[in-house]
Write a structure and sequence with these properties.
This protein is an all-alpha fold and about 375 residues long. The protein has a domain of about 240 residues: Rhomboid-like (Rhomboid-like fold, Up-down Bundle). It has 13 helices and 2 strands; from the N terminus they run ααααααααααββααα. β1 and β2 form a beta hairpin. α5 packs antiparallel against α8. The longest helix has about 45 residues. The relative contact order is 0.10. The N terminus is likely disordered. Its EC number is 3.4.21.105.
């Protein structure tokens, strides 16, 4: 079939070649040159398709990893789950695959900080109410005779301040729960689909948040949670509990979006997971705010260095890893998280958190007045 199609194209099928060699037409010449077993109704249709119709475009076939077959590039790292049987679907127009994640990143970040502002309002209102309830109880206790065994209620001063480790404890508990889910064999496909971020996956947006709480390796989770625990008190002192939670969650989504951009730009598709991007935001924010603070490595406490120098070294390493294509870590996510942390404590706090007052006023009006019943006026 292929030979005869070539012969007909070579000798021509148009009107200018209606008569060629020895007065024989194009069809007679090609029929004489082609083997007889190729002739027939089925083959004539093939000739017509070759001469008169365009071939349908080939559909993009699913690929299993960025290089080679069966996920060869990702077997080198023990921090990610085995993805040999996971099928990815890279878009023929990779830039378009970033549109939905971009809108999700912007929308989620706005919702995170808006929710944090409302949470802070409700928390302060509850503390003020508790304080005055305590004063009232103390006054009542002072004018009535004390009963035997009755304890005087005390208003503890820490009710006016957030409990610094509450947010960190919640994050660590969520990471531990997801780590246990990775150990369930029947959930492997679901975990890879929703708890690993990959721009070549069919699910793009929700894994940008869920993968921030996902660790496949125990060492990976332990290292990340130790760093989070070490810096959580400092970041809560700087920003407050509510703002810290908004920063952490939005940093996880933003760092994953930067990872998407890096993978699309380089064509190195593959799954990523872990809290490293969000933790890099926390670390960078603290190091930028307290650059002269002294840090040390857990196994080498005798070697200390300033927080500013540590941040510079981390950014340099992740930049080199992204340029050179190192695959053990997601260096683009690390770099995106660090840059976001530096930007937020330098400019973002003034631009975002200091401008939350209109939203808080609207929420206060809703909470104070409540929805009006009926449409008529009194």
């Amino acid at each position: 079939m292929a030979w005869r199609g070539w012969a007909q194209r070579g000798w021509g099928c148009g009107q200018a070649w209606a008569v060629s060699v020895d007065g024989r037409s194009c069809e007679e010449l090609t029929a004489a040159l082609a083997p007889q077993r190729l002739l027939g109704r089925r083959f004539n249709f093939f000739i017509q398709q070759k001469c008169g119709f365009r071939k349908a475009p080939r559909k993009a076939e699913p690929r299993r990893s960025d290089t080679g077959t069966s996920g060869e590039a990702y077997r080198r790292s023990a921090l990610i789950p085995p993805v040999e049987e996971t099928v990815f679907y890279p878009s023929p127009y990779p830039i378009r695959s970033l549109i939905k994640p971009l809108f999700f990143t912007v929308g989620f970040t706005g919702c995170a900080f808006g929710s944090a502002a409302i949470w802070q309002y409700e928390s302060l209102k509850s503390r003020v109410q508790s304080y005055f309830d305590g004063i009232k109880a103390d006054w009542l206790d002072s004018i009535r005779p004390q009963k035997e065994g009755d304890f005087r209620k005390e208003v503890k001063i820490n009710t006016w301040y957030p409990h610094f480790s509450d947010g960190a404890r919640s994050i660590i508990a969520a990471n531990a729960l997801v780590f246990c889910l990775w150990r369930v064999p029947s959930l492997q496909r679901t975990m890879i689909r929703y708890f690993t971020s990959n721009p070549a996956s069919k699910v793009l947006c929700s894994p940008m948040l869920l993968s921030t709480f996902s660790h496949f390796s125990l060492f990976h989770m332990a290292a990340n949670m130790y760093v989070l625990w070490s810096f959580s008190s400092s970041i809560v002192n700087i920003l407050g509990q509510e703002q810290f939670m908004a920063l952490y969650l939005s940093a996880g989504v933003i760092s994953n979006f930067v990872s998407y951009v890096g993978k699309v730009a380089t064509g190195r598709y593959g799954p990523s997971l872990g809290a490293s991007g969000a933790i890099m935001t926390v670390l960078a924010a603290v190091c930028t705010k307290i650059p002269e603070g002294r840090l040390a490595i857990i196994f080498l406490p005798m070697f200390t260095f300033t927080a500013g120098n540590a941040l510079k070294a981390i950014i340099a390493m992740d930049t080199a890893g992204m340029i050179l294509g190192w695959k053990f870590f997601d260096h683009a996510a690390h770099l995106g998280g660090a840059l976001f942390g530096i930007w937020y404590v330098t400019y973002g706090h003034e631009l975002i958190w200091k401008n939350r007052e209109p939203l808080v006023k609207i929420w206060h009006e809703i909470r104070t007045n409540g929805p009006k019943k009926g449409g008529g006026s009194k």
